[in-house]
Amino acid sequence: MALTGIQIYKYLPKTNCKECNQPTCLAFAMKLAASQADLSACKYVTDEAKKALAAASKPPIRLVTVGAGDKKIEVGNETVMFRHEKTFVHRPGLLVRVKDTTPAADIEKTVKEVSGYKVDRVGMTFGMDGIAIQNASGKADAFAKCVEAVASKTDLPLVLMATDPAAMGAALDKVSKAKPAIYAATKDNIDQMIELAKKYASPLAVRSSDGLNELSELTEKAAKAGVEDLILDPGFRGFGDTLVGLTQMRRLALAKRFEPLGYPVITFPGEGAASPDEEAVLAAQQVAKYGGIIVLDHFSPAAAYALITLRLNIYTDPQKPIQMKPGTYQILEPKPTSPLCVTTNFSLTYFSIAGELEAAGWPSWLVVCDTEGLSVLTAWSAGKFDAEKIAKTIKAQNIAEKIGHKNLIIPGGVAVLRGELEEELPEWKIMVGPREAMAVGGYLKENWKT
Ligand code: SF4
User: Fold this and answer.
1) How much distance in Å is there from the Cα of 407 to the middle of ligand 1?
2) Is 22 touching ligand 1 by the criterion CB < 6 Å?
3) Which pTM does this prediction carry?
4) What is the rounded distance in angstroms from the CA atom of residue 382 to the CA atom of residue 436?
């Protein structure tokens, strides 16, 4: 049972030294109780107190790792129901399932496509996260052969899906170094699956077809046997039952600190959908609430792009916008006579304007001001993108020395800054660009004379 803030406070030094970045020990205790702080932030806690507080500082949803190396998937360790309360931290893994009954050439094609898929978004590269391989044939040797073949074609993490412990054991023998997840322990095979999870030090997915009570009994049994890296499949498959069920599980884990359900969840949206499109919609629901590993039955770049973008939007800290480093960026090898634009350091803003300049074929200089990651209008209304800031940045960047003109294009959304900017930069001609980035190509065609 979790400790309350007051109970935790009794174990703290009560010096209010503030080194944990909290104003008082009591405030730190309250943060610990709400799983919004880490006990290690206070270096004055005694070993005895640490032991007593271990339960309070333990994450309510265990962090589980699938796979090894750079591409491993880490899921769990979430501490809030809603992103706006703090942030969601470990984005769900997006996997694609293949079956050992599918012709080898088709499996190879899918694995190649999934492994090679890449998306560039706001300066970061994303892709799919893994492959699930199902023992649909029911044969141990066919499964092991298929798993070995898939592993030889990808370095993505694997989830091995078989209910027969003999088939699972044969497959694990081939790929144990890759630390694949074992799916699934059920009430009929849990003892053997626990032994396999211990032998190969792999995470174990536990599946119930009879609700959360049975699922809790199974996870308690696995944890007691020493297997704590667990993944939950509560058996929900449709839109409604998945939404209600996963929300209930998250609430039980966070609010009630119900440890048997304090693990990430694996979902199979294809099993609850009537078409590949519906599968993508259900997967999107599970990205938002509360899938940990999402196994798709169909792969299409269009659906993958939408899911990856949605996931990026949800799994970023709303208090820390994705930012560009302030500075001068060159688009398409600009010359001294190329246009000079200025914008803010919110990544989405930067990539919108940079992408449009590139697409329109305009080599340009793009000066990025430090607006603490705010977009143009937000930064302007917060006083972080004003004439003084722009002029200071232009001067600090020595941009006049790099280019052969003094014409500066400001975003159309802040046309109001033109007069002030002309006062701040008296030798410059200030031009008002379009309000929307997508119009920049047409604007330059009409207004920029080289
Ligand atoms: Fe109290 Fe420790 Fe925080 Fe100092 S660092 S205020 S002693 S909880």
Assistant:
1) 54
2) yes
3) 0.79
4) 20
* Cα dist from 311 to 63, 82, 406, whole Å: 18, 14, 42
Q: Is the peptide bond before 290 cis (omega within 30 degrees of 0)?
A: yes
> Residue 450: which pLDDT band, with cuts at 50, 70 and 90?
low
Answer whether 28 contacts ligand 1 (Cβ < 6 A): yes
Separation between Cα atoms, residue 277 and residue 258, nearest integer Å: 35
Give the number of C-alpha atoms closer than 13 A to the C-alpha of residue 156, restricted to the C-beta side: 29
Has residue 55 got a pLDDT over 80? no
pLDDT tens digits, one per residue of 103-125:
999 999 999 999 999 998 877 89
CB of 42 shorter than 6 A to ligand 1: yes
Ligand 1 centroid–CA 254 distance in Å is 25
- Residue nearest atom 3 in ligand 1 by C-alpha distance: 20
Give the up-direction half-sphere exposure of residue 61: CA atoms within 13 A in the CB hemisphere: 28
Supply the pLDDT for residue 59: 81
Which ligand 1 atom lies nearest to the CA of residue 19? 5
**Cα–Cα distance between 363 and 241 in angstroms, integer?**
52
pLDDT grade, residue 2 (50/70/90)? low
CA-based nearest residue to 319, from 266, 374, 267, 359: 374
Which residue out of 11, 39, 40, 42 has the highest number of ligand 1 atoms within 8 Å of its CB and is therefore the one to mutate?
42
CA of 42 to the centre of ligand 1 (A): 5
What is the dihedral angle through the alpha carbons of 261, 266, 267, 268, rounded to the nearest 10 degrees?
-140
Side-chain-side CA neighbours of 447 within 13 Å: the count stands at 18
Overall size of the chain counted in residues: 450
Q: What's 12's DSSP letter?
A: S
Provide the total of helices (H) and of strands (E) in the chain, helices listed first: 17, 17
d(CA 125, CA 120): 5
Mean pLDDT of 408-431: 96
Which atom of ligand 1 lies nearest, measured to the CA of 28?
8
Nearest by Cα to 279 from 39, 94, 32: 94
Ligand 1: does its nearest atom lie under 6 Å from the Cβ of 395? no
Check if 33 has its Cβ closer than 6 Å to any atom of ligand 1.
no
pLDDT digits (tens, 9 = 90+) for 422-448: 999 999 999 999 999 999 999 999 999
